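Allow me, if you will, to draw on your knowledge of protein folds for a short while. I have a record of one protein: its chain in single-letter code and its fold written as discrete structure tokens. I remain grateful for any guidance, and I place the record below:
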Amino acid sequence: MADFFRQDLSGTRFERVNLTGAEFRTVDLTGTRFRGVLLSDATLRGIELRDVEISGELVNVTVNGVDIGPLVEAELDRRHPDRAKMRPTDPAGFRQAWDVVERLWDGTVRRARTFDPALLHESVGGEWSFIETLRHLSFATECWILRGMQGDPAPWHALSLPWDGMPDTPGVPRDREVRPSLDEVLELRRDRMASVREVVDDLTEESLAGDTEPVDAPGWPPARSFPVRECLLTVLNEEWEHRLYAERDLDTLVDSGCVDSGCVDSGRGTSGTGRSVSA
């Protein structure tokens, strides 16, 4: 344990640090950035929140006596009518959900093709580039469908991209320097999406209610059994959320004038705020 009293730690970086049970009193957190942070069982009292953006999963989050999670969920469903379809309960619902995913991503890819190809490698706000987002979604499908459900111990393509917080694992690629073209990434993406389509088309009530067989090999997910429903819902969540991030970042590029001027940031995305840390 360590005590920091009346010290200036401005600009300090904490990465892969365990702050379980830490206590903050009369602390100035102005301008701080939290990415991939777990705040389970946290208590915040006497807090002043101004100009704060929070993006993530809200479960039993009480603000001034009000559980805000259900309110946020209802508002997101209102804004995006297709969002509720990402929580299917039967095989027909999963097929319909994947129809929605294919349709929405088709529109997003068509939009991305109108951009300068160099911009599709640009990090916006420290997040993944558009190309990196597509690479990560291929990885998510490989993990939860090809490995988790179909038992392939090492299904990863060289272009696949794990989330940044995943420890380096033998056989799992993590090439952040490669710059494949949109068409190269889409070739992999189409193959992986076809795998999901095949699974949902063959889905039955019995198979949906079952569990996967553990895969005893390094990689993700861990070597244990998972409900089939959980695997499929994880993929749907990844597809839904990352498309929204991609559209948001394309909007930012337009608003910043980069689409007209061709400005390019050499920085790389870090799968930070709002990015999934479980796939």
Notes: The mean pLDDT is 90. The radius of gyration is 20 Å. The first strand starts at residue 62 and ends at 63.
